[in-house]
Write a structure and sequence with these properties.
Blueprint: E1 2-3, H1 8-26, E2 54-55, E3 81-86, E4 92-94, E5 99-100, H2 104-122, H3 128-162, E6 165-169, H4 173-180, H5 183-188, H6 191-204, E7 208-212, E8 238-240, E9 246-248, H7 249-268
Helix pairs in contact: 2-3, 3-6
This protein binds zinc ion.
Zinc ion is lined by residues 222, 224-225, 227, 241, 243, 245.
């Protein structure tokens, strides 16, 4: 927000000070006016619109305060289950065989971010161009964050709408990022954020999010005959089993996660 150089700024500060003193003298518990703290104060400033004194540029924020009744619905029996396997780079695979992936425009913004970051690396640190470029990079990051959030909201809403129980792997994100050199992808997915969206959206509808133990061998088990493989490398994209089952690796895992979820659900019920 950009403010013009009218006297509104000074007038406002003076008015705030006046009301602070007014309170101090009139109200029994109001303390003596204090300066903003250098360490912990919010960098905020309140003003009012007079004769078009405020020029807005860029983003607009709106705050709404409202009351609503508790949305949590009564729990109900679960019939429609789905399992989700989270593959790398933000892709998830469902036990139904379908996949969901970040849309193309998200990938495009990612490319743009890489471009802007390259440009930044060529700018001289501290220069005017550097500052401008840094702002562009920050805006790109923000756009990506927003696009990701939007996608996650829509996906979790449609899942919560269509299924009674959603089964997921309770991933240990830190362990995964450290151990497998897949860190960036895992963190970028905002997996934890997605799960919390899913959780409250299901809850609101009286439905269930079932977390399957992270040590459950979802990838190694055959989803048809339940036999477990000893070895399965990350490069094996198709799951083959002696029983004749031949399935996409991630779909096989998602079906296993769903079955395990059903088992847990039956145990708790
Ligand atoms: Zn099998």
């Amino acid at each position: 927000m950009k403010l013009d150089k009218t006297n509104v700024t000074i007038t406002n500060v003076q008015m705030h000070l006046e009301s602070a003193f007014h309170k101090f003298f009139r109200e029994p518990f109001a303390g003596f006016p204090r300066f903003k703290s250098k360490k912990s104060s919010r960098k905020s400033y309140t003003t009012n619109v007079v004769n078009g004194n405020i020029f807005l540029e860029g983003k607009y924020f709106a705050s709404l305060l409202f009351c609503c009744e508790n949305q949590t619905a009564e729990k109900r029996p679960a019939e429609k289950f789905i399992g989700i396997d989270f593959a790398m780079q933000g892709m998830c695979v469902f036990s139904t065989g379908k996949r969901a992936e970040y849309p193309m425009f998200y990938r495009n913004t990612e490319k743009k971010l890489a471009r802007e970051q390259r440009k930044l690396s060529r700018c001289q640190k501290g220069s005017q161009n550097y500052k401008k470029q840094k702002k562009r990079v920050a805006l790109c990051h923000e756009k990506i964050r927003n696009q990701r959030k939007d996608f996650q909201h829509k996906l979790s809403a449609s899942l919560a709408e269509s299924f009674d129980a959603v089964c997921v792997e309770d991933l240990n994100l830190k362990g995964m990022a450290g151990g497998l050199h897949l860190g960036k992808g895992v963190h970028d997915n905002g997996y934890g954020l997605f799960l919390s969206m899913l959780e409250y959206k299901l809850e609101e509808r009286g439905k269930y999010l079932i977390k399957v133990d992270r040590y459950f061998a979802s990838s190694k088990i055959c989803s048809v005959c339940r036999k477990k493989k000893e070895e399965l490398s990350l490069s094996d994209r198709i799951y083959y089993c002696e029983c004749g089952n031949r399935m996409d690796r991630d779909v096989n895992a998602a079906v296993n996660i769903m079955n395990e979820g059903k088992r847990i659900f039956a145990e708790c019920a």
